Amino acid sequence: MDKQKQQLAILGGLSLVLIFFLVTTFMPKKKSSRMAAAANTSAGPLLNLPQPASSEAPRAETGAAKATPEELKSQQEKTAMDWGMDPFFHLVDKEVYKGSSLTLKGVSIGKGRRRYATINDEIVTTGDSAFGYRVEEIDKTRVLLKRGDESYYLVFPEQ
Predict the structure, then answer these.
(1) Tell me, what's the pLDDT at 137?
(2) d(Cα 43, Cα 12) in Å, to the nearest integer?
(3) Residue 60 lies inside a defined structural domain of this protein
(4) How many domains does the chain divide into?
(5) What was the pLDDT predicted at 9?
(6) Assigned domain for 79 exists
(7) Which domain holds residue 135?
(8) In a domain, 127, yes or no
(9) pLDDT number for residue 13
(10) Nearest partner of 86 among 116, 123, 138, 134, judged by Cα
(11) What integer pLDDT is reported at residue 98 of this predicted model?
(12) Which of 73, 80, 112, 137 is a plausible cystine mate for 144, CB 3.0–4.6 Å?
């Protein structure tokens, strides 16, 4: 009987944990007054919700600190910084600037034998036009580029 009592105690404890979990999961959450006020002020203008009329004067948040002019200037300088190329922005026809060179940085052969190459931080595939050239062929170690009658293989740089 001792083993059965232990099993019943464990089963009872687990059922209490399950009941507690279900109750806390399905009970509606109450928002604190501070969170509700923030939600009303931030979501109101965006959703065109009517704002409740209040006879009270607006209260200042006690925990919120205002940025100093130096901090604001620092943030504005950071937004004006040049962060380089956007990896998600792809121009179809990029021209090579005078004095620049093409560099093969990577080759990927994926499922279904889809082949991609990275040339000067731009991802291209067979048939794409890039830097004024058309990508004709992509191999493991080289890419065939053509422009008019010109054609040449672009290979990985020596290290």
Answers:
(1) 92
(2) 45
(3) no
(4) 2
(5) 93
(6) no
(7) 104-155
(8) yes
(9) 93
(10) 123
(11) 44
(12) 137
What pLDDT does 11 receive? 93
Block means of pLDDT (10 residues each) for the chain, length 159 residues?
89 92 81 55 49 54 72 80 61 47 87 86 89 90 90 84
* C-alpha separations of 93 from 39, 69, 140 in Å: 46, 43, 24
Give the strand order in the sheet containing 150-155: 129-130, 133-138, 142-147, 150-155
Residue 130 is predicted with a pLDDT of 83
DSSP 33-94: HHHHHHHHHHHHHHHTPPPPP-SSPPPPPSS--PPPHHHHHHHHHHHTS-----TT---S-P
Is 48 inside any structural domain?
Answer: no
Element (H, E) at 15: helix 2-26
pLDDT value of position 142: 92
Q: How far apart are CA 22 and CA 82, in angstroms?
A: 51
Which residue's entry shows tokens 């200042």? 60
Tell me the one-letter amino acid at 18: L
Tokens of residue 62, six digits: 């006690």
